[in-house]
Design brief:
single chain, mainly alpha, Serine Threonine Protein Phosphatase 5, Tetratricopeptide repeat, 2 domains, 74% helix, 0% strand, globular
Length: 175
């Protein structure tokens, strides 16, 4: 678009784009700074800290409607093409966990974390799995790991903290 604007401007500009070059400088720098800030905060990521080049949107749509079987099949196909992709492994773990297959969920979360130990989504979801399988201490350990990764706080830390607090409240009321 910039090139089109510059061509149009140059058609009417006897100074051959001198002013446009100055304007471009003032537009480019703030835009680059905003893009850097969004990328560093994770605001550009899809529902988590997914940083891979794999397009997870179709899978996320399947998960949104709770079609975990289709999501699992699609994610396995993606993993065949990129076997070290921690985002795909994390979403496989998530889909298995939501479908009730905790054993495979644990396996894929662990593989994702072997590939990328600071994967925020995998650490959060693993903590949630530990709560679902009544492994409270391990869930708290995952929260501590997230605290170390998300030094200024992140939504994954907040979500796991809330899940742990709810778990504690529920177990205290059942005692």
């Amino acid at each position: 678009m910039e090139l089109v604007l510059q061509r149009e401007y140059n058609r009417f500009n006897p100074f051959e784009g001198c002013l446009m070059k100055t304007i471009n400088h003032y537009i480019w720098l703030p835009a680059a700074l905003i893009a850097f800030m969004l990328a560093s905060t994770g605001a550009l990521a899809i529902g988590g800290n997914y940083s891979s080049d794999v397009d997870l949107e179709p899978v996320l749509a399947m998960i949104e409607v709770e079609d975990y079987e289709a999501a699992i099949n699609e994610l396995h196909d993606m993993l065949d093409g990129d076997p070290d992709n921690s985002d795909v492994m994390t979403m496989l773990g998530f889909s298995y966990r939501k479908s009730g297959n905790f054993e495979d969920a644990l396996t894929f979360y662990q593989w994702a974390l072997r590939s990328e130990p600071k994967h925020i989504g995998a650490n959060e979801y693993l903590g949630e799995l530990y709560l679902q399988t009544n492994q409270f201490e391990k869930a708290v350990q995952q929260l501590e790991i997230l605290d170390g990764i998300c030094r200024s706080g992140c939504k994954e830390y907040t979500k796991l903290k809330q899940a742990i607090d709810s778990y504690e409240a529920a177990t205290a009321s059942n005692s």
